[in-house]
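Fold this complex.
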Amino acid sequence: MTIRRSAENPIITPAMLRPSRAGHVVIGVFNPGCIRHGDETLLLLRVAEAPVPRDDREVLAPWFDVETGDIAVKRWARDAMALDTSDPRVIVSGGRTWLTSISHFRVGRSRDGIHFDIGDAPAMSAATALESFGIEDPRITLLDGTYWINYSAVSPRGIATALASTRDFVTFERHGVIFAPPNRDVTLFPERVNGRYFALHRPMPEGIGEHAVWSASSPDLMAWGDHRYVAGARAGMWDDGKVGGGAVPFRVRVGGRDAWLAIYHGVRSTPLQYALGALLLDADDPSRVIGRSREPVLAPEAPYERHGFFDGVVFTCGLLVEGDRVRVYYGAADGVTAVADLSLDTIIAGLA
Amino acid sequence: MTIRRSAENPIITPAMLRPSRAGHVVIGVFNPGCIRHGDETLLLLRVAEAPVPRDDREVLAPWFDVETGDIAVKRWARDAMALDTSDPRVIVSGGRTWLTSISHFRVGRSRDGIHFDIGDAPAMSAATALESFGIEDPRITLLDGTYWINYSAVSPRGIATALASTRDFVTFERHGVIFAPPNRDVTLFPERVNGRYFALHRPMPEGIGEHAVWSASSPDLMAWGDHRYVAGARAGMWDDGKVGGGAVPFRVRVGGRDAWLAIYHGVRSTPLQYALGALLLDADDPSRVIGRSREPVLAPEAPYERHGFFDGVVFTCGLLVEGDRVRVYYGAADGVTAVADLSLDTIIAGLA
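Structure:
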């Protein structure tokens, strides 16, 4: 695999950003959605902020209180009974799960695709009861002249996928929840397929079921049906744990035929690793897999991918294709943003 | 609460039915959908069948093999390592969950609503990869002259809700999965609300989230969106564990105003119990709860409700309303079908 990581990686780090509010610190800027906007590369960045504890005996969980319209902070003594803080992302207390940070979105703009101007103010942040633990992992799809943004709406009621739209990345309109919990890692196709909108999504059943990639179609982007199973984890391979959507799919020609290429994420169980691979999908029925990466197209190898807030993660929500170059923007170790150029021919050659 | 259980309860038991195939036994007939059809009461019954083991050292799991179009049987030695058979409904082996029985649907017809003629042949049975563990818990809604049947499609890929339709209960057309896994206990409203079809559904997130009642709306019954949280479990009450849909909602007048009444099921954690209660929902926005039962309207008290395949369960998928009489058909202890007449006035008086 020909992979060119930017020499300036990680290109965006928490140290480059000011927190959006007093008493908080930026702990992550990662998993950006990406699109060309005018002559700029535009990233919609997930920015995770955490309240600063008074001392290290305190454990905090921020949440958006829809009653007050403001962020509130839940506090525990670190040595409290039955407090599970083993996963840095969550706090489990009394059977309930809280997050240690709350994410919003900021816009980053760049001429060269490497150096981004990022404002201090959120472009979108938690605003509803279904977003009280924040909004995460935006994907941007241009359809009919409007930019459609789907994202994870996280709350004690579950992790759902919600939809918003914008024309200018200044004002955003919300359209509610399009995939009920537990469902995330949704990617909307940039064209209708047989007259219908099309998406990949990732239900998360436990017990009976698996965390796998499904498809759905829609007459209007708001209501989704005809859910089909597309691709699951593969025993003995790099994606043996679970799989889910990554970047927005794009059209390719392979062997003289049109198809869709979707960069997805696959989780290896042991040792735990989040890597990226490709699904080649039928042009007219994208629920049908016609090829899949034997090996990851990008796996955590660089130090900033192997070590960070959550070790061993590369995770993408957006990319730009130009000829053979697939420029993937991705979150590394759940903390920073990096970019790598992959070769489309090499990705296709690695499909089985 | 005025509850009149039929003196002939349970009105339908496995002993009344012949198995649909050799080598199998009917272990349950329960959770029927219900509707008036001509001058008859029609039940669409969930019939659970289990393969008969050669001896008691054997544990079996039936499944529909879409390749062969036939039921296959997975076999284990009962004393096999790492085999969990503690829940009579499932077998957990090597991290995978299997079911001990596979369900299909049969039609039952009755003039008096108590004595039903039930054929030996399935009306609908597993037919797709997403139904390989069977089809369960049908609900019937009459809309635009067609009977719409939603049901749980169970497979190793998860528990999803699928849609079928019929005009005669002889031939059925499938319309695919309308709610991606994990989602069951869906009820379709019998009228459009503000021009859109409307449903209650029950996502099943684990970790972050809860098993609660949500709503969704649709332009065409096939594609569903605008998912909203409606009602969750209530600490310290009879439904403190989880809640989900029950029978198809119906229109009522309360205090001179129209509203929807939905009989739902609530699970008490300790001791475990499945009971029924009512949600009163706004006529124009059924995602808005305006009343809810303080106590169950029907709880497992009769011997056939307290003891059976799975103890302590009353669970409804269908009812008939006539004046003040709400005739609830329900599964008891996950094994038999019973019927009880409740008073609508009493249900409404018990709302808070």
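The interface with chain A takes residues 90, 97, 129-130, 133, 154-160, 176-183, 201, 203-210, 212, 214, 216-220, 222-229, 232 of chain B (CB under 8 Å).
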